[in-house]
Amino acid sequence: MVVTPWFEATVLAPGITRFTEPYVHGFFRANLYRIEGRDFDIQLDFGVGVRSLTEVSPVTGRPVLAIASHAHVDHVGSFHEYERRAGHRIEAHTFAEMDDAGTLASAFVGIKSPVTALPSPDWMITNYALTPAPLTEFLDEGDVVDLGNRKFIVLHLPGHSPGSIALFDEHNGDFFSADAIYDEGLVDDIPGADVETYLRTMHRLASLDVSTVYAGHGEVMDCAQMQRVAREYIASKGG
Questions:
Q1: Can you tell me the distance from the alpha carbon of 182 to that of 213, in angstroms, rounded to the nearest whole number?
Q2: How many Cβ atoms are within 10 Å of 113's Cβ, its own excluded?
Q3: Helices (H) and strands (E) in the chain, counts
Q4: Which pLDDT score, from 0 to 100, does residue 239 have?
Q5: What percentage of the chain has pLDDT greater than the value 90?
Q6: Beta-carbon neighbour count of residue 122 at 10 Å?
Q7: What is the C-alpha to C-alpha distance for residues 239 and 236, in angstroms, rounded to an integer?
Q8: Is 111 helix (H, G, I), strand (E, B) or coil?
């Protein structure tokens, strides 16, 4: 069965829309965020790419800065469709080549029932491939993304992947954490992940003062919930 719409859109706050892919296997069902600004919008993360995210993106008439929080398959599928693409330079080679070592796309292809409905009539998982999306600019720790009416500081939060980044609005506390932290069981046993590095990130997050956490998977969190997840991870590793 082919389904339309493929994406589910939820307005979480004024100017913040979350997109998900409800027919994608739960492990690969990422949260994708459109953050609207005065001068341009941010599209943060892009799903697995079996359907184009651009078909549901809000039409505001403003330019879009596409930011990939990291290079895993569930976050980069539609990344190539945007003209202005930003991410961390550590994973630049993966964005440019979409190699399996960095995207882990074979895990999506090989999982049982990667989708529960067809994104198009002739779609087959055997034909699935990611399209290279070379970065047009780099984002690193301390960089600022200024939308005109609000600013986000970039936090480099490796551990889940080497180039994981998050966006933090220090003015109102909005924190787009991507896969650095969420409340659905953190993943640190995949290629590119590093527990010791992740522990340093968790110690940082355990004391980070935020208000609302828009995570890469699962539901929105508050500061107390985020810090609890970080402390539990630290305790689980004896760190």
A1: 9
A2: 8
A3: 6, 13
A4: 74
A5: 93
A6: 7
A7: 8
A8: coil
pLDDT of residue 2: 79
- Going by their DSSP bridges, the two strands 64-67 and 41-44 should be labelled as parallel
Which helix (H) or strand (E) is 95 found in, with range? helix 92-97
More confident residue, 58 or 69: 69
Mean pLDDT for 114-122 is 94
pTM score, whole prediction: 0.97
Could you count the other beta carbons within 10 Å of the beta carbon of residue 59? Answer: 6
Residue type, 169: D
Phi, psi of 179 (to 5 degrees): -90, 5
Rounded CA gap, 140 and 87, in Å?
Answer: 8
Query: Alpha-carbon torsion 110, 183, 44, 12, what sign?
Result: positive
Q: Which amino acid is at 37?
A: G
**Which 8-state DSSP code applies to residue 69?**
S
**Average pLDDT rounded to a whole number, residues 197-206:** 98
**How many whole angstroms separate alpha carbon 34 and alpha carbon 15?**
8
Structure tokens at 145: 């993304």
State whether residue 38 is helix, strand or coil. coil
* Distance from C-alpha of 154 to C-alpha of 232, rounded to nearest angstrom: 25
Q: Identify residue 228 by its one-letter amino acid code.
A: R
pLDDT in tens, 160-182: 999 999 999 999 999 999 999 99
| DSSP 8-class letter at 186 | -
